[in-house]
Amino acid sequence: MSRLTKILSFATTAFVGLLVAAPEAFAQAAGAAPAKSGSSGLLALAAGLAISIAALGGSLGQGRTAAAALDGIARNPGAAGKIFVPMILGLALIESLVIYAFVIALRLSST
């Protein structure tokens, strides 16, 4: 089984586990006063899921980018200078997407 398949199966298992456990976490005790009609709990959950999925995607993208660049350098060491700059630019763009997701998650959780 490839590494990506293992990661995706683990992420799927964790997500299904979250879906199974969610009703118990949001259940209301018998005789308790009804909660406010707000969705701050769901927004916090959405913020957490957004940043976790963004971090997972960003780390997978950065890993594949670095692996491809190192493979290219290993095949042709003379092209290291031409491969390095686009690799760093790609890594910066991937990381910026994760930072955007983090900012959105902060905005969601603060409302």
The fold-level CATH name of the domain at 39-111 is F1FO ATP Synthase
* Residue fraction in strands: under 5%
Label the overall shape.
Answer: elongated
CATH architecture of the domain at 39-111, by name, is Up-down Bundle
Sheet having the most strands: none
CATH uppermost class of the domain at 39-111 = Mainly Alpha
Secondary-structure element pattern, one letter each: HHH
**In DSSP terms, counting alpha (H) and pi (I) runs of 4 or more, how many helices?**
3
So, the CATH homologous superfamily of the domain at 39-111?
A: F1F0 ATP synthase subunit C
Say how many strands there are.
Answer: 0
Stretches where pLDDT is under 50 for at least 5 consecutive residues are none
Q: What does it look like?
A:
The structure is a single chain. The chain has 111 residues and is an all-alpha fold. The protein has a domain at 39-111: F1F0 ATP synthase subunit C (F1FO ATP Synthase, Up-down Bundle). 81% of the residues lie in helices and 0% in strands. It has 3 helices and no strands. It has helices at residues 3-25, 40-75, 80-110. Helix 2 packs antiparallel against helix 3 (80-110). It is elongated, with a radius of gyration of 20 Å. The model has no long low-confidence stretch (mean pLDDT 80).
